[in-house]
Amino acid sequence: MAELADETTGQALTRARAAIELHARRVPDFPSPGIAFKDLTPVLADPEGLAAIVTALTHGCREVDLVAGIDARGFLLGGAVARELGVGVLAVRKGGKLPPPVTSVSYTLEYGTASLEIPADGIDLTGLRVLLVDDVLATGGTAVAAAELLERAGAEVIGVAVIMELGDLDGRGTIARGLGPAVPVHAVAVD
């Protein structure tokens, strides 16, 4: 069964990478001069591209109890990936978006600080194996903060899955240093 699943997700990886090449919009000098932004919105708007990406994000996933999607595009992906895996989804929100009580973590960005939150009531995360999902892995700080938040609530983050990894920014290294090298990072494509 696992071999069949890996074959299916492996085929989806090929289709997802082709959809990214075909549909991703390249925007020069955004968000600042010298940056070449790759907009994945057109890829997700394409039904075939979305389907391939969602399946590809599950590649190598085993024994997942819950998917956590990081605010905001991770919400779109997280729900679809959870459906694909037959598990529930949890939105990891930016600070100030949830009613109290919340469990919160603050972290440093290259341009300041931010916070992430999850509900402190109503969801028992103790012992749950969680797959963390987002659209892009850049420096890795947000993924590490989200994982720390989930672990504070009693969950175990068993992997990080993203559509696009910005390889020059060492997000994978940040995750390995912050969560340990045993936490796998799966990127559908690397830019």
Automatic annotation (TrEMBL):
Residues forming the Phosphoribosyltransferase domain are 62-165
Q: Which reaction does it catalyse?
A: AMP + diphosphate = 5-phospho-alpha-D-ribose 1-diphosphate + adenine
- Quote the cellular component terms of the Gene Ontology held in the record: cytoplasm
Q: Recorded E.C. number(s)? A: 2.4.2.7
List the GO molecular function terms: adenine binding; adenine phosphoribosyltransferase activity; AMP binding
Question: Could you mention a single GO BP entry for this protein?
Answer: purine ribonucleoside salvage
Q: Where in the cell is it found?
A: Cytoplasm
Which Pfam families does the record cross-reference, listed alphabetically?
Pribosyltran
Which pathway, metabolic or otherwise, does it act in?
Purine metabolism; AMP biosynthesis via salvage pathway; AMP from adenine: step 1/1
InterPro entries (UniProt xref): Ade_phspho_trans, PRTase-like, PRTase_dom, UPRTase/APRTase
Top-level enzyme category: transferase
Claim: Cytoplasm is one of the keywords in the record: yes
Alphabetized, the UniProt keywords read: Cytoplasm, Glycosyltransferase, Purine salvage, Transferase
- Keyword Glycosyltransferase attached: yes
The record, for SUPFAM superfamilies, names: PRTase-like
Biological role? Catalyzes a salvage reaction resulting in the formation of AMP, that is energically less costly than de novo synthesis.
What subunit structure does UniProt give? Homodimer.
**Sorted alphabetically, which PANTHER family does this protein's record hold?**
ADENINE PHOSPHORIBOSYLTRANSFERASE (PTHR32315:SF3)
Supply the name of the protein: Adenine phosphoribosyltransferase
